[in-house]
Design goal:
Helix content: 55-70%
InterPro entries: 6-PGluconate_DH-like_C_sf (IPR008927), NAD(P)-bd_dom_sf (IPR036291), PDH_C (IPR046825), PDH_N (IPR046826), Preph/Arog_dehydrog (IPR050812), Prephen_DH (IPR003099)
Number of helices: 13
Distance between the termini: 28 Å
Pfam families: PDH_C (PF20463), PDH_N (PF02153)
Radius of gyration: 22 Å
CATH class of the largest domain: Alpha Beta
CATH superfamily of the largest domain: NAD(P)-binding Rossmann-like Domain
Keywords: Oxidoreductase
Shape: elongated
Protein name: Prephenate/arogenate dehydrogenase domain-containing protein
GO molecular function, one term: prephenate dehydrogenase (NAD+) activity
Strand content: 5-15%
Number of strands: 7
Largest sheet: 5 strands, mixed
CATH architecture of the largest domain: 3-Layer(aba) Sandwich
Length: 276
Protein backbone atom coordinates (compact mmCIF):
# COMPACT_ATOMS: atom_id res chain seq x y z
CA UNK A 1 0.00 0.00 0.00
CA UNK A 2 2.96 2.33 0.41
CA UNK A 3 3.36 2.55 -3.36
CA UNK A 4 -0.35 3.26 -3.75
CA UNK A 5 -0.22 6.19 -1.35
CA UNK A 6 2.98 7.52 -2.92
CA UNK A 7 1.24 7.52 -6.30
CA UNK A 8 -1.88 9.07 -4.79
CA UNK A 9 -0.09 12.08 -3.30
CA UNK A 10 2.36 12.52 -6.17
CA UNK A 11 -0.47 12.51 -8.72
CA UNK A 12 -2.07 15.39 -6.84
CA UNK A 13 0.98 17.55 -7.19
CA UNK A 14 2.51 17.05 -3.75
CA UNK A 15 6.31 16.68 -3.66
CA UNK A 16 6.70 13.10 -2.49
CA UNK A 17 9.66 11.17 -1.10
CA UNK A 18 9.82 7.48 -0.26
CA UNK A 19 12.20 5.05 1.36
CA UNK A 20 12.20 1.28 1.78
CA UNK A 21 14.57 -1.44 2.92
CA UNK A 22 14.01 -3.09 -0.49
CA UNK A 23 16.21 -0.69 -2.42
CA UNK A 24 15.61 -1.90 -5.96
CA UNK A 25 11.84 -2.05 -5.54
CA UNK A 26 11.91 1.42 -3.98
CA UNK A 27 13.79 2.79 -6.99
CA UNK A 28 11.23 1.30 -9.34
CA UNK A 29 8.32 2.75 -7.36
CA UNK A 30 9.96 6.17 -7.09
CA UNK A 31 10.52 6.25 -10.83
CA UNK A 32 7.00 5.05 -11.61
CA UNK A 33 5.18 7.57 -9.38
CA UNK A 34 7.54 10.53 -9.73
CA UNK A 35 8.77 10.48 -6.15
CA UNK A 36 12.21 11.23 -4.72
CA UNK A 37 14.05 8.26 -3.26
CA UNK A 38 15.61 8.75 0.17
CA UNK A 39 18.15 6.50 1.79
CA UNK A 40 16.73 6.44 5.33
CA UNK A 41 13.43 6.81 7.16
CA UNK A 42 14.67 9.91 8.93
CA UNK A 43 15.84 11.39 5.66
CA UNK A 44 12.43 10.81 4.12
CA UNK A 45 10.61 12.28 7.13
CA UNK A 46 12.78 15.41 7.31
CA UNK A 47 10.70 18.53 6.71
CA UNK A 48 7.67 16.66 5.39
CA UNK A 49 4.18 17.93 6.16
CA UNK A 50 2.93 14.33 6.16
CA UNK A 51 4.79 11.11 6.93
CA UNK A 52 2.88 7.93 6.11
CA UNK A 53 4.23 4.62 7.39
CA UNK A 54 3.38 1.46 5.47
CA UNK A 55 5.50 -1.38 6.85
CA UNK A 56 4.83 -4.87 8.27
CA UNK A 57 2.61 -4.71 11.36
CA UNK A 58 5.33 -5.74 13.86
CA UNK A 59 7.58 -2.92 12.59
CA UNK A 60 5.14 -0.01 12.75
CA UNK A 61 5.84 0.97 16.36
CA UNK A 62 9.60 0.91 15.78
CA UNK A 63 9.39 3.16 12.72
CA UNK A 64 7.01 5.56 14.49
CA UNK A 65 9.47 5.88 17.35
CA UNK A 66 12.35 6.32 14.91
CA UNK A 67 10.95 9.18 12.84
CA UNK A 68 8.77 11.12 15.31
CA UNK A 69 11.64 12.92 17.10
CA UNK A 70 12.98 14.15 13.74
CA UNK A 71 9.73 15.52 12.32
CA UNK A 72 8.81 19.16 12.44
CA UNK A 73 6.20 20.26 14.96
CA UNK A 74 2.67 20.13 13.58
CA UNK A 75 3.45 17.61 10.84
CA UNK A 76 1.13 14.63 10.42
CA UNK A 77 2.44 11.17 11.30
CA UNK A 78 0.15 8.53 9.79
CA UNK A 79 0.21 4.77 9.56
CA UNK A 80 -1.96 2.28 7.66
CA UNK A 81 -1.67 -1.03 9.52
CA UNK A 82 -4.48 -3.58 9.74
CA UNK A 83 -4.06 -4.22 13.47
CA UNK A 84 -4.06 -1.20 15.75
CA UNK A 85 -3.40 -2.12 19.38
CA UNK A 86 0.35 -1.50 19.49
CA UNK A 87 0.42 1.08 16.69
CA UNK A 88 -2.10 3.40 18.34
CA UNK A 89 -0.08 3.21 21.54
CA UNK A 90 3.08 4.15 19.63
CA UNK A 91 1.34 7.09 17.95
CA UNK A 92 0.10 8.41 21.30
CA UNK A 93 3.67 8.39 22.57
CA UNK A 94 4.86 10.08 19.38
CA UNK A 95 2.40 12.94 19.92
CA UNK A 96 4.68 14.14 22.72
CA UNK A 97 7.07 15.32 19.97
CA UNK A 98 4.46 17.71 18.63
CA UNK A 99 3.32 15.66 15.64
CA UNK A 100 -0.32 15.10 14.70
CA UNK A 101 -1.03 11.35 14.82
CA UNK A 102 -3.33 9.68 12.31
CA UNK A 103 -4.11 5.95 12.36
CA UNK A 104 -6.01 4.81 9.29
CA UNK A 105 -6.91 1.47 7.73
CA UNK A 106 -7.75 1.58 4.01
CA UNK A 107 -10.32 -1.13 3.31
CA UNK A 108 -9.09 -1.69 -0.23
CA UNK A 109 -6.00 -3.03 -1.91
CA UNK A 110 -3.28 -1.60 -4.16
CA UNK A 111 -5.27 -2.40 -7.30
CA UNK A 112 -7.78 0.37 -6.49
CA UNK A 113 -7.77 3.02 -9.20
CA UNK A 114 -9.46 5.75 -7.16
CA UNK A 115 -11.04 6.47 -3.80
CA UNK A 116 -14.55 6.57 -5.19
CA UNK A 117 -16.68 4.06 -3.31
CA UNK A 118 -13.76 3.11 -1.06
CA UNK A 119 -13.72 3.14 2.75
CA UNK A 120 -10.94 4.32 5.05
CA UNK A 121 -11.24 3.60 8.75
CA UNK A 122 -9.91 6.18 11.22
CA UNK A 123 -8.93 4.76 14.61
CA UNK A 124 -8.80 7.63 17.12
CA UNK A 125 -5.45 8.30 18.73
CA UNK A 126 -5.86 11.65 20.53
CA UNK A 127 -8.88 13.44 19.04
CA UNK A 128 -11.10 11.24 16.91
CA UNK A 129 -13.17 14.07 15.43
CA UNK A 130 -10.13 16.11 14.42
CA UNK A 131 -8.39 13.05 12.99
CA UNK A 132 -11.48 12.05 10.99
CA UNK A 133 -11.68 15.58 9.61
CA UNK A 134 -8.02 15.42 8.63
CA UNK A 135 -8.60 12.11 6.84
CA UNK A 136 -11.55 13.61 4.95
CA UNK A 137 -9.36 16.44 3.69
CA UNK A 138 -6.48 14.17 2.75
CA UNK A 139 -8.59 11.50 1.05
CA UNK A 140 -11.42 13.35 -0.61
CA UNK A 141 -13.96 11.03 -2.14
CA UNK A 142 -13.45 8.16 0.30
CA UNK A 143 -15.98 7.23 2.94
CA UNK A 144 -14.40 7.86 6.34
CA UNK A 145 -15.54 5.54 9.13
CA UNK A 146 -14.42 6.03 12.74
CA UNK A 147 -13.83 2.93 14.86
CA UNK A 148 -12.23 2.69 18.30
CA UNK A 149 -9.15 0.49 18.46
CA UNK A 150 -10.74 -2.40 20.37
CA UNK A 151 -13.78 -2.47 18.09
CA UNK A 152 -11.56 -2.28 15.00
CA UNK A 153 -9.19 -5.06 15.99
CA UNK A 154 -11.99 -7.39 17.08
CA UNK A 155 -13.77 -6.81 13.76
CA UNK A 156 -10.54 -7.40 11.81
CA UNK A 157 -10.12 -10.75 13.56
CA UNK A 158 -13.25 -11.82 11.62
CA UNK A 159 -13.15 -9.63 8.51
CA UNK A 160 -9.49 -10.41 7.78
CA UNK A 161 -8.18 -13.09 10.13
CA UNK A 162 -11.00 -15.63 9.99
CA UNK A 163 -11.69 -15.18 6.27
CA UNK A 164 -8.02 -15.60 5.36
CA UNK A 165 -7.76 -18.67 7.60
CA UNK A 166 -10.86 -20.25 6.02
CA UNK A 167 -9.64 -19.63 2.50
CA UNK A 168 -6.14 -20.88 3.20
CA UNK A 169 -7.60 -24.11 4.61
CA UNK A 170 -9.83 -24.43 1.52
CA UNK A 171 -6.87 -23.78 -0.75
CA UNK A 172 -4.78 -26.36 1.10
CA UNK A 173 -7.39 -29.03 0.39
CA UNK A 174 -7.64 -27.99 -3.27
CA UNK A 175 -3.86 -28.13 -3.66
CA UNK A 176 -4.16 -31.92 -3.60
CA UNK A 177 -7.02 -32.02 -6.11
CA UNK A 178 -7.34 -31.77 -9.90
CA UNK A 179 -8.52 -28.15 -10.06
CA UNK A 180 -9.04 -28.18 -13.82
CA UNK A 181 -11.44 -31.09 -13.50
CA UNK A 182 -13.25 -29.44 -10.60
CA UNK A 183 -13.68 -26.21 -12.55
CA UNK A 184 -15.11 -28.10 -15.51
CA UNK A 185 -17.87 -29.42 -13.26
CA UNK A 186 -18.27 -26.40 -10.99
CA UNK A 187 -21.27 -24.16 -10.45
CA UNK A 188 -21.65 -20.75 -8.90
CA UNK A 189 -20.62 -21.41 -5.29
CA UNK A 190 -17.38 -23.23 -6.02
CA UNK A 191 -16.38 -20.80 -8.78
CA UNK A 192 -16.82 -17.75 -6.56
CA UNK A 193 -15.13 -19.44 -3.59
CA UNK A 194 -12.18 -20.57 -5.71
CA UNK A 195 -11.63 -17.02 -6.96
CA UNK A 196 -11.54 -15.71 -3.40
CA UNK A 197 -9.19 -18.47 -2.25
CA UNK A 198 -6.80 -17.94 -5.16
CA UNK A 199 -6.78 -14.20 -4.47
CA UNK A 200 -5.86 -14.87 -0.84
CA UNK A 201 -3.05 -17.20 -1.91
CA UNK A 202 -1.71 -14.50 -4.24
CA UNK A 203 -1.24 -12.08 -1.33
CA UNK A 204 2.04 -11.44 0.47
CA UNK A 205 2.62 -14.34 2.94
CA UNK A 206 4.22 -12.09 5.53
CA UNK A 207 1.20 -9.80 5.57
CA UNK A 208 -1.23 -12.68 5.99
CA UNK A 209 0.91 -14.18 8.75
CA UNK A 210 0.86 -10.83 10.55
CA UNK A 211 -2.92 -10.57 10.22
CA UNK A 212 -3.25 -13.93 11.94
CA UNK A 213 -0.46 -13.55 14.50
CA UNK A 214 -0.56 -9.91 15.57
CA UNK A 215 -4.25 -9.58 16.39
CA UNK A 216 -4.87 -11.04 19.83
CA UNK A 217 -8.55 -11.58 19.03
CA UNK A 218 -7.94 -13.89 16.07
CA UNK A 219 -7.35 -17.07 18.07
CA UNK A 220 -10.76 -16.69 19.73
CA UNK A 221 -12.55 -16.73 16.38
CA UNK A 222 -10.41 -19.53 15.02
CA UNK A 223 -11.41 -21.61 18.05
CA UNK A 224 -15.05 -20.82 17.31
CA UNK A 225 -14.57 -21.78 13.68
CA UNK A 226 -12.97 -25.16 14.42
CA UNK A 227 -15.70 -25.88 16.99
CA UNK A 228 -18.37 -25.02 14.40
CA UNK A 229 -16.67 -27.28 11.84
CA UNK A 230 -16.67 -30.15 14.32
CA UNK A 231 -20.33 -29.52 15.14
CA UNK A 232 -21.21 -29.64 11.42
CA UNK A 233 -19.26 -32.85 11.00
CA UNK A 234 -21.27 -34.41 13.84
CA UNK A 235 -24.53 -33.24 12.27
CA UNK A 236 -23.67 -35.30 9.20
CA UNK A 237 -24.36 -38.46 11.22
CA UNK A 238 -27.83 -37.27 12.20
CA UNK A 239 -31.00 -36.92 10.19
CA UNK A 240 -32.15 -34.03 7.97
CA UNK A 241 -33.97 -32.52 10.95
CA UNK A 242 -30.62 -31.54 12.50
CA UNK A 243 -29.68 -29.47 9.45
CA UNK A 244 -33.15 -27.96 9.32
CA UNK A 245 -32.68 -26.74 12.87
CA UNK A 246 -29.26 -25.33 12.05
CA UNK A 247 -30.57 -23.51 8.98
CA UNK A 248 -33.49 -22.09 10.93
CA UNK A 249 -31.09 -20.69 13.53
CA UNK A 250 -28.65 -19.28 10.97
CA UNK A 251 -31.40 -17.70 8.88
CA UNK A 252 -32.83 -15.99 11.94
CA UNK A 253 -29.41 -14.52 12.74
CA UNK A 254 -28.12 -13.65 9.27
CA UNK A 255 -31.57 -12.49 8.23
CA UNK A 256 -30.98 -9.36 10.31
CA UNK A 257 -28.47 -8.26 7.65
CA UNK A 258 -30.34 -5.99 5.21
CA UNK A 259 -28.43 -7.59 2.32
CA UNK A 260 -29.29 -11.17 3.30
CA UNK A 261 -32.25 -11.49 0.93
CA UNK A 262 -30.09 -10.35 -1.98
CA UNK A 263 -27.33 -12.85 -1.23
CA UNK A 264 -28.13 -15.37 -3.95
CA UNK A 265 -28.52 -12.64 -6.55
CA UNK A 266 -25.18 -11.10 -5.53
CA UNK A 267 -23.47 -14.49 -5.65
CA UNK A 268 -24.74 -15.06 -9.17
CA UNK A 269 -23.62 -11.59 -10.27
CA UNK A 270 -20.15 -12.36 -8.91
CA UNK A 271 -20.19 -15.65 -10.83
CA UNK A 272 -21.18 -13.93 -14.07
CA UNK A 273 -18.43 -11.35 -13.59
CA UNK A 274 -15.89 -14.15 -13.19
CA UNK A 275 -17.13 -15.77 -16.39
CA UNK A 276 -16.59 -12.61 -18.49
Amino acid sequence: MGAWFARYFSSRGFPTAITDVRGEEAREVASAVGAELKGTNIGAAGDADLVLISVPIPSVGKVVSEVAPHMREGAVLAEVSSVKETTVRALREAAAFGVKPLSIHPLFGPAAESLKGKTIVVVPVIDGDAEAGLAERLFEGAEIVVSEQEEHDRAMAVVLGLTHFMNLAFARVLSEADIASLKRLAGTTFTVQLAVAEAVVSEEPGLVASLLRENRHTSEYLDRFTAAAEMLRNLMTEGPEAFEGLYESLRASLGEDPDYHKADERRYRAFEALMD
